[in-house]
Amino acid sequence: MLSSGSAGYCRPDGDQPRTGSSLGENRIGPLAVKGTHRFRQFLALSRSEQSAFVEAALLLSLARAAVAFVPFRRIAQHIGRFQDETEPEERSDWLEKRRLVFLSLHRASHHLPWKSSCLVQAIAGQRMLLRRDVPSTLYLGLARDADSGELLAHAWLRSGEQVLTGGSASGDRYTVVGSFTAGDEP
User: Bridge-partner residues for 162, per DSSP?
Assistant: First the structure.
């Protein structure tokens, strides 16, 4: 049943469409504002931060696809030397590179349309550090949930003394079952 209104039709709830702007603008207006805000935030970053953000988004996407479609034994061949660890050595030139990688992964993972798992973030972070000649160790750990008894798996990435992905207490809560070192040739 049509009601008499400026638009000539009723919405299912009986209310008339808003006047003064088209219906399409009302639907996409907030999304356009949110997108514009994010773009402005991106433009406010330095060139190196913009480049690292794009790199992180691409590597997170590739790592997610690899984890979803490639058997882990094949992935493991490309993420470093198995059961090896880097030294917790600190070099001043690595600190800024680590900070850039950490921030870029954090920013990109929050802006992608999917959730990036701990393993995906660790793989992407390790690739980013390797491109910057910063050694790192990717850890795989297991723990049992105290309440349900469920077995939990987790991955985290350490470079020097800093844990870049997966949380700083990961090594305390999880038993390490595998480690992969990249960037620090023996």
Answer: 159
Q: What is the DSSP string of 10-62?
A: --TTSPPPPSSS-HHHHHHHHHHHHHHHHHHHHHHS-HHHHHHHHHHHHHHHH
| Helix, strand, coil percent content, the chain, rounded in steps of 5 | 45, 15, 35
Over residues 18-62, the pLDDT tens digits come to: 444 444 444 444 445 566 777 777 777 788 888 888 999 999 999
Across 69-86, b (16+ Cβ under 10 Å) vs e yields: eeeeeeeeeebbeeeebb
Is the pTM higher than 0.85? The answer reads no
Q: Which residues pair with 152 in a beta bridge?
A: 143
- What is the pLDDT, as a whole number, of residue 104? 93
Element (DSSP H or E) covering residue 146: none
pLDDT tens, position by position, 78-120:
898 998 888 877 788 889 999 999 999 998 998 898 999 999 9
The SS3 call for residue 94 is helix
What's the CA gap between 180 and 83, in Å, rounded?
Answer: 6
3-state SS class at 27: helix
Q: How far is CA 40 from CA 33, 34, 50, 65, 122, in A?
A: 11, 10, 12, 29, 28
